[in-house]
Design brief:
The complex is a heterodimer of chains A (997) and B (174). With 997 residues, chain A is of the alpha+beta class. Chain A is built from 27 helices and 49 strands. The longest helix of chain A is centred in the middle third of the chain and has 16 residues. Chain B is an alpha+beta fold and 174 residues long. Chain B is built from 4 helices and 10 strands, in the order E-E-H-E-E-E-H-E-E-H-E-E-E-H. The chains are: A alpha+beta (997), B alpha+beta (174). Chains A and B meet through strand 9, strand 14 and strand 38 of A and strand 2, strand 6 and helix 4 of B.
C-alpha cells in the first residue's frame, strides 16, 4: 500500500502535523499536503466508487484532472460535495467523506452492477430504460438515483461569504510554471499591468519536480530568483490558488481564487471570483498526462506517472513498495528514476516502443532498472487494489508472458496540452502527429474585437514540453502580449516526439480485454463502449460522447477525451484529426455557486426599487407585491382584516368617497424636439401631434408586428414637448424602444427622449370627493371646470410644485398629482391630512385592478400577452385612420390579425354570479386534432366586484362582441364547467358620467 | 473598515441637457449655466464646490448647479430654436461619497469599469454598473470618489457599498 517516506517532501512541513478524518477515521498529514497527498500518505488507496459499476477507485492524478477522488468536505454550513481531493489543501480538523458508496466504501452493494456490466453497455440510458415506460418511473430511476448520486447537495445555508472583483490588466498570464513566470517577467519588464493566476498553491509548475535545469540553474533556484524579481514589480500581481475557468469575448476571463479553503473559518470571503478584462492572455496552463488504456487500468494503485513523482517529490508519498512503470514515451522514465532514487523498487519499465534508447532510457538502464521494450500490460491482478501486472507483447492479442508482483502502476500515455481556455472562445486545435497531441492552431486563434488573437499559448500548453522551450516561449509571449503583438514564433523543441501512440494496450486486444480497459474512470466508459457506439453508427465524436457518457463527468474528460476520440477514430478507420475533439466549454474546473453569486444574496440578491412612499406603506404593514423590481402595496389590511375584505373596503372608498394610490412607479418619458410630434405619431396608434398643449390623450403602442406592447396617458407640455406615461413594467423597455427607433431608423429626426420616472413621485387621487380633498390643500390651482377630464395643469399644491393630470383609471373623478420625488412623502401626508374628514383611504394595486375591471379598462399583461391587437380589445377607435404610417400598422393588416374570428374582448358574468376561475378557458364543442378539448376564448381578468356585489370578468372570445347575451361554458379544474353570459366589458357607469363629473 | 468611509452625498440641483455638444451655442449656454466648458468624452468639469458638468453620453450632459429651475429656464432661453432638451432631474438620483485610500478597491468589487489609478482619475466620469444597477462615478480631485444611482435603488446601493467596504479589499493594479 501507499505510504510516507521518513524524509523528503519539498512542500511539506513535518513539524506541523495536521489531523483530519476520512469517513470518520482519524488520520494525519502534514502542512503543505493536499488532501489527496495526505490520504495516500496515510495508506488510503480506496477513495470512491465509480458511477455506473461501483468499482473501487483510487487516486489517479495530482491536479484538477483527478477523476476519482471526489469527496464531501466539511459539515453543515461548510459542507461541500464533489470536492477534488487533489485540489483541497489539508487543514487541521478537516472532515472528508467518500461518496457514491452504500453501505460503506469497502463493502459496496453496487458492485453487483459490475457483474451486470454486460447489460449496462454504452447507451444504456437510452436503450434499456426507455421502455416499458412504467418501469422507468417505478424501478429504474429510483435504483439509478440510489446507486449514482456523486455527492449530495448541501442542505444548510452557506456559512461563508464570497466576493467578486473586477480587474483590468494589459496581460493576464494563466499558469505559474516556467512559461507563465517567464511571460510575466517579460511583460512586467515591458511596463504592462500583469496578473498571473496559478491554480495550485505553488509556483513553478512541473519544473521543480522533474528537476531539469531551467536557464542553466536548478529549477528551485531559478524559481526563487524569478519570483523575487516579480514580487518587486508594482505592476505585477501573482495570485496562487486561482484557477482561470473561462475565456470569453473581448478578452474577458473569469478566475476563481480560493482564499480561506485552506484555513476554514478564517475571516473574510471564502472564495473570490476575478472578472478580468485582459488586453491579451498568455496561456501557460501546461499539459495533462494521459492514461493508457489497458485491461484493469482502473484498479486503485494505477496512477499517472507524473502524479507518482509529484507525490513522491513534493510530499514524500509513495504509491507502493514496488511500482511498475508502463509508458509509450520517455517522460515516464523520470518517475522510475525518482522512485529508485528514493529507495523504492521499480521491478520493470514496460515500454510500448520497440527500441527506447533516449537519454532517460539509458539512465534507467544505468540505474539497474529492467526495461522491457515492446511490452505492455494485459491485465492487473488484485480486487480492491493492485497486486501485480500481467505482461504481454504490445503488438499481440495479450498473451501473458510474465507476471510481475507490484503494489502500484505508473502509467504514461503521453501529454495533452491544456488547450481548454484557448478553445472556449473559438480557438481551434490542430493534431500534431509527431507528438501525438492536439495543439493550439495558430491559424485559428480566439479573436478579439479587433480581429487579433486574444490568447497566446506558450510552453507545454502550446505542446512544447521542455523547460528550455517553456522559458523561450514564455518570454516571447510575455513580450508580445505587452507590446501589442498577438503571436509568437513557436519553439521547434523536439521533446515529446519520441512518443509511440498507443490507444489500446495490447494493440490486438479482443472484446474481453477491451471491456476491461477504461477510458473514463468516473463515468465507467471503456474501450468496448466506444467500439460499440462506433458499430451502432455514432460517427460524430459529439454524439459518441453523449451516447457513452465519455467525458461527461465532473472532470469534463480531462483524462479521457483524447484517448476516447482516438479509440473512436480507430473503430471508424479514420484519422484522429478527421474525428476531431468535442467542444471545450467553461468552466475549466468546477466553480462553487456561492462564488458565482458573490454579493448577490440575502437583501442584496436583487435590487428592490422603492418609491418615495415605500417606507410609509411598510410601516402601515401594507401587503406588498413585486411589480418588476418595484415593491407596491397590494392592499392595506386593517388589523384583523383579510386581504379580500381590505380590497373591498378600498374599492368602496374610491367609489363612494376618495382613495389615494402611490402611482410613482408609472413610467414617465419626456419626448421633446421639433420632430417629437411626428415621432410620437409613429410610436402610438393614435395621433399625438394634434393634441393641444394642456391636454391629455390615452395612447396605445404596438410592436411592428401589430401587437399591443404598452399603453398610457400622454400629456402635451408645450409646443415641442410631450410627457408619455407608460406602464410600471414598461418604463425602461419603452424608453429603450424609443431610443432604438431614434438611433437606428430615424437618426436624423430632431427628437430627444429622457426617462423621468425617478424624478417624480405621483399620487392618484380618485373618487367623488377627490376634488374636495385637493381643494382643501392650499394652492394656486383651479380644479373646477377649468380642468376638465383629460386635461392637465400645474402650480403649487400644499407648497409643493406640482403637475396635476385629470385622468381616471377607476372610472371616478380622478386626478394624478406629480411632484419632485423628494417631496413625495410630503404630498402623501398632506393628502392624508386633507382627506381625514372624508375618510380618505390609501388603496393598493388589487383595488386598482378591480376598479378598472369594473369599468372594462384593459391592463397590459392581463388582457394582452404579446399576441393581442388593439382591435382584439375593441380599441379600433384608438387607431388613427388618417395617419400614413405608424409602428404596427402594416402588421395588424395581415390576414390573421385582421381575421373576423379572432378572440375579442367581452365581459363574462357567471350564471351564479360567482367569480370565474383565473385563466379559465371558454369551452367549444368537440376536440382539437391533438385530442384536447376545443376552446373559443379565455378569461383574462376576474374579480369579485364589491360595487356590483357579484363576480365580474373580462375575456377574449371568438366573435365576442357579436355574441352579447349568449351563454358559454367556462372551464374549471376538477369541476364541471360553469355557465356564463356574454356581457359588455364595462359593467359600471357605462356612459362615464362619474369621471367626467 | 477604517480604510473607506461610505457616506451619503448631498447633491446640488441637477439638470439633464441633451443637444449637439459640438455646437458653439451649447458650449456658451453650458458655460453660462455652470461656469464650465463642455467636457470631452468621459470628462467631468467640476469646481471645488462640486458644481459643474458631467459628460453622460455623446449628446447628453448632467449639470450640477445650485438652482436647477433657473438653470433649465436659462438653457431653454439660450438654446431657443436649437434642438435640445433640458430638464430638472434633481430628485431622480441619490449620491454617495467614498472617502479613504481603499475607495477604488471597494468599487472594483462592484463595478466593471476600470477605476484603477491608470484607468480613471480626477476630471473623469464613468457611467457603469454597481452590481445590478446603473451608476455614474466621478472624482473632483485626487480623493474622494463620488457616485450617483437612481433614487429608487439607493437602499440597495447603500447595502452594496457598505458590504464591499466592510472587508479588506484588493487594491487595483497600479
Amino acid at each position: 500500500m501507499s505510504g510516507r517516506l521518513a524524509t523528503g517532501g519539498r512542500l511539506i512541513d513535518r513539524s506541523r502535523a495536521l489531523e483530519f478524518t476520512f469517513d470518520g477515521r482519524r488520520l494525519t498529514g502534514f502542512a503543505g499536503d493536499t488532501l489527496a497527498a495526505a490520504l495516500l500518505g496515510a495508506g488510503e488507496g480506496l477513495v470512491g466508487r465509480s458511477f455506473k459499476y461501483h468499482r473501487p477507485r483510487g487516486i489517479v492524478a495530482y491536479g484538477p484532472e483527478e477523476p476519482n477522488a471526489l469527496l464531501g468536505i466539511g459539515r453543515a454550513g461548510r459542507f461541500e460535495p464533489n470536492a477534488r481531493a487533489t485540489q483541497v489543501d489539508l487543514s487541521d480538523g478537516l472532515e472528508a467523506e467518500s461518496q457514491n458508496r452504500w453501505p460503506s466504501l469497502a463493502f459496496d452493494v453496487g458492485t453487483l452492477n459490475g457483474l451486470a456490466a454486460r447489460v449496462l453497455p454504452a447507451g444504456f440510458y437510452y436503450k434499456t430504460f426507455i421502455h416499458p415506460r412504467p418501469f422507468w418511473k417505478h424501478l429504474f430511476e429510483p435504483v439509478i438515483r440510489r446507486a449514482a448520486g456523486l455527492g449530495r447537495a448541501p442542505r444548510h445555508r452557506d456559512d461563508d461569504t464570497y466576493e467578486q472583483v473586477h480587474a483590468h490588466v494589459d496581460v493576464l498570464v494563466v499558469g505559474g510554471g516556467v512559461a507563465g513566470l517567464a511571460a510575466a517577467l517579460a511583460a512586467g519588464r515591458a511596463g504592462a499591468r500583469v496578473m498571473v493566476v496559478e491554480q495550485s498553491a505553488h509556483w513553478g509548475g512541473r519544473a521543480p519536480v522533474d528537476g531539469d535545469p531551467v536557464d542553466g540553474r536548478a529549477p528551485d533556484q531559478w524559481l526563487g530568483q524569478t519570483l523575487a524579481a516579480l514580487e518587486e514589480m508594482e505592476n505585477v500581481r501573482l495570485i496562487p490558488r486561482c484557477a482561470a475557468v473561462g475565456v470569453y469575448d473581448h478578452g474577458f476571463v473569469l478566475a476563481a481564487e480560493r482564499l480561506t479553503d485552506h484555513d476554514p473559518g478564517a475571516p473574510g470571503p471564502r472564495q473570490r471570483l476575478w472578472r478580468i478584462r485582459a488586453g491579451r492572455v498568455v496561456l501557460a496552463a501546461g499539459a495533462i498526462e494521459r492514461p493508457l488504456a489497458f485491461p484493469g487500468n482502473d484498479l486503485p494503485g494505477v496512477m499517472l506517472a507524473s502524479a507518482v513523482r509529484d507525490y513522491l517529490v513534493n510530499h514524500a508519498v509513495f504509491p507502493g513498495d514496488r511500482t511498475v512503470v508502463v509508458t509509450n514515451n520517455d517522460d515516464a522514465y523520470h518517475t522510475a528514476l525518482a522512485l529508485v532514487a528514493a529507495g523504492l523498487r521499480v521491478p520493470a519499465i514496460l515500454d510500448a516502443r520497440a527500441a527506447p534508447n533516449g537519454l532517460l532510457a539509458d539512465a534507467a538502464r544505468a540505474a539497474g532498472i529492467r526495461v522491457l521494450a515492446g511490452h505492455g500490460i494485459a491485465g492487473v491482478a488484485g480486487r480492491q487494489r493492485v497486486a501485480g501486472v500481467k505482461v504481454c507483447a504490445v503488438a499481440g492479442e495479450g498473451a501473458v508472458v510474465e507476471e510481475i508482483a507490484c503494489e502500484a502502476v505508473a502509467m504514461s500515455g503521453g501529454w495533452s496540452p491544456a488547450v481548454h481556455l484557448w478553445s472556449h472562445c473559438g480557438g481551434r486545435v490542430a493534431w500534431d502527429a509527431d507528438r501525438a497531441m492536439f495543439r493550439p492552431d495558430p491559424a485559428h486563434p480566439p479573436r478579439g474585437a479587433d480581429g487579433t488573437a486574444m490568447v497566446i499559448p506558450a510552453g507545454a500548453a502550446n505542446g512544447r514540453l521542455s523547460p528550455a522551450a517553456a522559458l523561450a516561449e514564455g518570454t516571447a509571449a510575455g513580450t508580445a502580449a505587452a507590446t501589442g503583438q498577438d503571436r509568437i514564433d513557436g519553439s521547434d523543441d523536439p521533446t515529446g516526439t519520441d512518443i509511440a501512440p498507443v490507444w489500446m494496450m495490447p494493440q490486438g486486444a479482443g472484446p474481453a480485454l477491451r471491456a476491461k480497459a477504461f477510458l473514463d474512470f468516473q463515468n465507467d466508459v471503456k474501450v468496448a463502449d466506444v467500439d460499440l457506439a462506433a458499430r451502432e453508427g455514432f460517427e460524430s465524436v459529439e454524439h459518441t460522447k453523449r451516447y457513452t457518457t465519455l467525458g461527461m463527468a465532473t472532470d469534463q474528460g480531462k483524462l479521457s477525451n483524447i484517448n476516447g476520440l482516438a479509440v473512436l477514430s480507430q473503430a471508424l478507420h479514420k484519422d484522429i484529426p478527421a474525428v476531431g475533439t468535442t467542444t471545450f466549454r467553461p468552466p475549466y474546473v468546477p466553480v462553487t455557486l456561492g462564488t458565482l453569486a458573490g454579493e448577490a444574496r440575502g437583501d442584496l440578491f436583487q435590487p428592490v426599487r422603492a418609491t418615495p412612499m415605500l417606507g410609509w406603506h411598510v410601516e402601515r404593514e401594507a401587503y406588498m407585491e413585486p411589480v418588476g423590481l418595484w415593491r407596491r402595496p397590494y392592499c392595506y389590511p386593517a388589523p384583523g382584516e383579510t386581504h379580500e375584505v381590505a380590497v373591498a373596503r378600498e374599492v368602496n372608498a374610491v367609489r363612494q368617497g376618495v382613495g389615494i394610490l402611490d402611482a410613482s412607479t408609472l413610467g414617465k418619458i419626456l419626448v421633446q424636439g421639433l420632430d417629437a410630434g411626428r415621432f410620437l405619431d409613429m410610436l402610438y396608434t393614435g395621433a399625438m401631434s394634434t393634441l393641444p398643449v394642456g391636454r391629455c390623450r390615452y395612447g396605445l403602442m404596438c410592436s411592428e408586428q401589430g401587437f399591443l406592447i404598452d399603453d398610457g396617458v400622454v400629456a402635451r407640455l408645450s409646443d415641442d414637448a410631450w410627457l408619455c406615461h407608460t406602464t410600471t413594467g414598461g418604463a425602461d423597455r419603452i424608453h429603450a424602444h424609443m431610443e432604438d427607433w431614434l438611433q437606428t431608423e430615424w437618426w436624423d429626426w430632431r427628437v430627444f427622449t429622457l426617462n423621468l420616472t425617478e424624478q417624480y413621485a405621483q399620487v392618484a387621487v380618485a373618487g367623488p370627493r377627490a376634488r374636495d380633498v385637493l381643494e382643501t390643500l392650499s394652492g394656486d390651482i383651479d380644479l373646477t371646470a377649468a380642468l376638465p377630464h383629460m386635461h392637465w395643469t400645474h402650480g403649487t399644491l400644499a407648497g409643493i410644485p406640482a403637475r396635476i393630470f385629470r385622468i381616471s383609471f377607476s372610472g371616478e373623478l380622478g386626478f394624478e398629482v406629480a411632484v419632485p420625488a423628494a417631496r413625495g412623502m410630503d404630498l402623501w401626508q398632506a393628502l392624508l391630512r386633507a382627506g381625514q374628514g372624508v375618510g380618505i383611504t390609501p388603496y393598493g394595486t388589487e383595488a386598482l385592478h378591480v376598479l378598472r375591471a369594473e369599468k372594462g379598462f384593459i391592463m397590459i399583461g392581463d388582457e394582452t400577452d404579446g399576441t393581442v391587437t388593439p382591435r382584439d380589445l375593441g380599441l379600433e377607435g384608438m387607431i388613427s385612420k388618417k395617419k400614413a404610417d405608424f409602428l404596427g400598422k402594416r402588421g395588424m393588416e395581415r390576414s390573421h390579425l385582421a381575421a373576423p374570428d379572432r378572440w375579442r374582448l367581452v365581459g363574462l358574468r357567471a350564471a351564479d354570479d360567482s367569480v370565474l376561475p383565473e385563466g379559465a378557458y371558454v369551452l367549444d364543442a368537440g376536440r382539437t386534432e391533438n385530442g384536447q378539448r376545443a376552446t373559443q376564448g379565455r378569461v383574462t381578468s376576474t374579480y369579485w366586484s364589491p360595487t356590483l356585489k357579484r363576480g365580474i370578468a373580462l375575456a377574449l372570445l371568438r366573435h365576442g362582441p357579436d355574441r352579447m347575451g349568449q351563454s358559454v361554458d367556462v372551464s374549471r379544474i376538477g369541476a364541471a364547467p360553469i355557465r356564463a353570459t356574454v356581457v359588455a366589458p364595462c359593467q359600471y357607469d357605462p356612459d362615464g358620467g362619474r369621471m367626467h363629473g | 473598515m477604517a480604510e473607506v468611509t461610505v457616506a451619503p452625498l448631498t447633491l446640488p440641483g441637477m439638470v439633464t441637457l441633451k443637444a449637439d455638444l459640438a455646437d458653439a451655442r451649447v458650449a456658451a449656454a453650458v458655460r453660462a449655466a455652470c461656469g464650465q466648458d463642455v467636457p470631452a468624452r468621459l470628462g467631468a468639469s467640476l469646481d471645488a464646490g462640486g458644481h459643474g458638468v458631467l459628460w453622460m453620453a455623446p449628446d447628453e450632459l448632467l449639470l450640477l448647479v445650485p438652482d436647477a429651475t433657473a438653470t433649465v429656464a436659462g438653457l431653454q432661453g439660450a438654446l431657443a430654436g436649437l434642438p435640445h432638451l433640458a430638464a430638472d432631474v434633481s430628485d431622480a438620483r441619490m449620491g454617495f461619497r467614498l472617502t479613504g485610500p481603499g475607495a477604488r478597491a471597494v468599487l472594483a468589487r462592484l463595478t466593471p469599469a476600470d477605476l484603477s489609478a491608470p484607468g480613471f482619475g480626477p476630471g473623469q466620469v464613468r457611467r457603469t454598473r454597481l452590481a445590478q444597477v446603473a451608476c455614474a462615478v466621478w472624482m473632483t480631485g485626487p480623493a474622494p470618489v463620488d457616485l450617483v444611482v437612481m433614487r429608487s435603488v439607493a437602499a440597495y446601493a447603500a447595502g452594496l457599498l457598505q458590504g464591499a467596504a466592510a472587508a479588506e479589499a484588493v487594491a487595483p493594479l497600479g
